[in-house]
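Try this one yourself first.
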């Protein structure tokens, strides 16, 4: 039986944080350029939509690792 190594859930959390930071930063830049807050709000929503599955998957994997370890 081959031992399959699972990806580290912390990497998913870091990736979600980086994606959120990039989107919010881009939304802030466009907000400053256009003076329209809708761009910033769209960046917040897009960041939440993109990173939510990563956060849920990381939480599930952490729970499975805790259950498997004892």
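Now uncover the answer:
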């Amino acid at each position: 039986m081959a031992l399959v190594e699972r990806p580290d859930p912390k990497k998913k959390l870091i990736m979600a944080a980086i994606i959120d930071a990039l989107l919010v930063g881009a939304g802030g830049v466009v907000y400053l350029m256009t003076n329209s807050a809708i761009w910033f709000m769209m960046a917040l929503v897009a960041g939440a939509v993109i990173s939510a599955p990563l956060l849920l998957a990381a939480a599930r994997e952490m729970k499975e690792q805790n259950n498997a370890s004892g």
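Discussion: Residues 27 and 42 are 7 Å apart (CA to CA). The mean pLDDT is 84.
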